[in-house]
Structure formats: C-alpha cells, structure tokens
Amino acid sequence: MIDTNKMENLISIGELARLTGITTHTLRMWEKRYGTPHSQRLPSGHRRYPKEDVPRLRAIAKALESGYRASKVVSGTLEELHGLMGLKPLMDPNLKSIQENENSSNELLIERWIKGVHEYDDDCLIQGFHQQWNKSGPLKFIIEYMVPLIKRIGKGWEFGELSIPHEHFATECIDSFLTSKWRQLNSRKDGWNLLMATLPNETHNLGLLMCAVVASLSGAKIIYLGLDTPIEDIISTANNFETKLLCLSISSGNKSLDTEDCLLKIKNELNKNVTLISGGKGTPDNLPGITKIEGFNNFNHWLENFEKQLPTAV
After folding, report:
1. Hey, which of 115, 207, 255, 284 would disulfide with 249, CB 3.0 to 4.6 Å?
2. Considering only CA atoms, which of 138, 139, 163 is closest in space to residue 153?
3. What letter would DSSP give residue 291?
4. pTM of the complete model beyond 0.70
C-alpha cells in the first residue's frame, strides 16, 4: 500500500494515457511484459502511476514514432532515450529523416528538463540550459528550446501533470537564467537605447526576457523596466533617455480594450523619433503607428532592418 500523503503525485492510467498519447491497453501490456510503467496500489485496490514518469513515457512514444522497437526502449531511462535519439540522425542519411530526428531529440531534451521540474532539480535545469545555450547560440536556444519548454510547462499545468509549485519553480529557473544571459550580452554597450517593458497589471515576464535576449544580439543598449510598469513611467523613460525603440510584451491575460487604450496613450505621448513595437498574444492587430511583431525570429530580422536605417547604427 502507498502513503496517502503522496496521492497528489499519482494519476490514473486514463490520465497517464491522455498525457503521453499511449493507449491504456499498451500501458497495461508494457507493465505486465516489461515491469514499466510501475503502478502502485491505493488502499481501495485501484492502481495509480507516478506523474514524474510522464516525461519518460512521452520520450518512449517519440522513439517508437522514429522506428525503434518497444523491446529496445520501453525499459530505458530518460537519459538513455535521449542518448539513443541523439545518435539516430548519424545512422540515417536522409535529410528529412535527420530533421525529424533532430526535432525528436529536442523534445526528449525538453522532457528531461520537465523531469527536473518534477523533481525540483534546479541543477538539472540550469546546467542543461547552459549546455544547450553553448551548443546552439542565443537565438536558436530561444526559438528551439525555450519556447517549446514554456509551452510544455503550460500544457503540463493545464492537464494536471504539473502543479502550481512546479510551474513557479520552472519559471524562476528560466527567469534567472535568461536574465543572467541577456545582461551579460548587454554589458558595456554604448549603442542606441532600446527600452523594454510590460503594461500595468502584466504578470508574465518570460516573453519580455526572451525578447531581451534577442535584442541583446543587436547593437542596442537595453533599458529594461520589466513587469507591471506604469504607463507614465514608460513614456517618461522613453522620452527622457533618447530611446530609439520602445518594445512592449503583452500576454493573452490582458483585456484587449484596456490594452488598446494603453498602447494608444503611449504612442500619442511618445516623442516622434521613438518607434513603438509590441509582441505577445495579447497585442491587438492594426493599431495606427504601432508595429506588431510575431515570433522571435521575425523580431530578430526586424531589429536588423531597423538598425540599418538608424543614422548612427552600430
């Protein structure tokens, strides 16, 4: 029998199937044949499965999609699966297959980080972030790893795999890492000023932090105001510090009408030489004088073109 205090970390086989995409029949067959996933019995006699096994089972599903046999991968650890999938592109000369397997390898790495979230293992996350940052470079790291990881955390929370403490823990690790990286890239710059902020009542910071990483690849000197900035402070800072560009990040949590009013007020009171852009799911479409940017790759290209047009571009 199991400790009922640990119930919150256990899920039914139906929930496990929904979170992993593996049928309940297959899960039962694997448990009987391979001893995994390993269930635990409640005092009532019902079986329950640990939530922290979800990343490994999702990795197994990806390995099976890539052509591996169940007998080879079902009993593997997440680390073994990650290594196995990482070697697959070297065995397949087909370019499309290589790309597909690279994507699978990326997803396996993200599942490894999700396992770290389950275990509150900040060393796993931060060291993993550093290693992948060094391999990929800032822009690719944001697009191919941070964006999918944040989406995966959101889905995990939505479907009950991850708890609110898990989500807060992961957000804090990502926040700390991204902050340290963009500040390193921004240090000792003396280029044109780029102001970054969010509107009042904004509670989501990761979008703006990822924008800061991308912006730090330009010649701009970033002035970062962060979360929940009063409109008057955004306007006065932009006008008083010779800002060339004001970049706002708006999540889907903001009410659209309030957001439109805020953006138009800011635009109307900015000095005429300050360009205003905004990104995020909460950014309205087609507001006069305000450029909406979708996607970090597009933001990077837009910044390159903007910088070329500056009279004293760095």
Report:
1. 207
2. 163
3. E
4. yes
